[in-house]
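Usage

Read records sequentially. Each one opens with the input sequence:
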Amino acid sequence: MLSYKFRSNIFQIVSFGVIWGCAGLVYSILEKGILGDQTYYPATGNPYRFEDTVFTTFLLTTVLGLVVGTLEAMYLRGLFSRMSLAQKIIFKTLLYLVILVVMLMIITTIYSAVVLKTHLFDSEALHDVRLFITSGAFWRVEVYMAAVIVVSLFYSEVSQNLGPAVLLNFLTGRYHTPREEERIFMFLDMKSSTTIAEKIGHLKYFNMLKAYFADLSDPILRHEGEIYQYVGDEIVISWRLQKGLKDAHCVQCFYDMQRALEHRKAYYLEKFGVAPAFKAGLHYGKVTTGEIGVIKKDIIFTGDVLNATARIQSLCNSHQVDILISGVLLQRLDLSDRCSVLSLGESELRGRGEKLALYTLQPQ
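and closes with the structure output:
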């Protein structure tokens, strides 16, 4: 199975390629509208043929998009991370423009040499390149490329903020019409959060929360979970049933998050004086999923399973355990030799008339 990070990078790189390829097609159509029936470029005098140009432009812009997407995904995603969204987009746009201007100069030189059937450093070919660079056409191309870069980066930032799965659901309209589906939910709550906030102060506590959520995010995404919402110091994580059951992702996610915090324990103790820990409840059931809102749209879940999972998580303190899982979910999971199961009997959940079998898990 491909890792989440690899799939995420591929998704972003391909997204950039698609955006840039579409922008190339739009540019070719606009260029045709401007040049009309002309058979040459006014700036350089080079021959112009729409059929050849549209294919070449589409190919080149797609390749450039893949190059920019690769740079963004593999190397520059975290660049200017301390800046606001607007500042980040402005500075990255300028950086990418410098890179692309150099690439465009190289491509133009090659194109002129091919058209003129000469070598790259021929004076006539270089003269055509100088004419193009100093022409209004070149700067119009740069402005257009800047706009495409801004759109690409904005898409990338929104994708990271919402999560690729959520953004894709919005774009495809998957939940535009409400639908019923089975999902696994994990309600994860920080232990002794009120005490910690009072001890270190609310500003420092907020900075700790940012680091805490960041450290938990990678294991969640690695195990194909969707962060449904943050509620104070609580995270609600969701899986489509088959994804959560596959390789026991929902359970492995819990232990990977514990390991992530343990790995960073020294950092938390040094910076905040405390090392956060959490408890979690897991359950599954049917929910109705759909888009809601007018000014601010969101994809929400409604169903009894959310209330039940919250109640299960609240019983962790009573049973003095870090994880509680419902019997109905446990029956669907193949835990193999990953962990041992301990029955805690049946519990009546607050606000519900029926009792639910609960279990805790211990890694082997």
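Summary fields computed downstream for this record:
- The first helix runs from residue 4 to 35.
- DSSP finds 14 helices and eight strands in the chain.
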